[in-house]
Design brief:
Length: 104
């Protein structure tokens, strides 16, 4: 089977991120084949805390990485995500996205 890297770049997305993280958790693709790469653009709200909590609470995924994007801009964040992703397929997901459970 294929290992999937779901990558999310976020800056000050504490309002929308909980819904997306819940959508990721609800994926029906085997979680042991899903790597989640969360990149925070130095948010000043609770974005990074939400990412860290997701990482602590969801141990059934292949891996969950919470990384920093000190340059803050989205393109630099994607460079961080792609550099750290190890999946066979990399999926770029916006923090405002809503995913069906069969997305992956």
């Amino acid at each position: 089977m294929i290992k999937l890297s779901i990558c999310v770049i976020a800056y000050n997305e504490e309002k929308f991120l909980p819904g997306l993280l819940q959508n990721i958790k609800a994926q029906n693709y085997p979680h042991q084949l899903i790597e989640v790469v969360l990149v925070d653009g130095m948010s000043v709200d609770g974005t990074k805390e939400l990412m860290n909590k997701f990482s602590e609470d969801c141990k059934d995924f292949y891996s969950i990485q919470v990384l920093d994007n000190p340059k803050k801009i989205q393109a630099a964040g994607w460079n961080v995500a792609i550099t750290h992703a190890t999946g066979d397929v990399i999926s770029r997901i916006d923090a405002h996205a809503v995913l069906p459970e069969d997305f992956s």
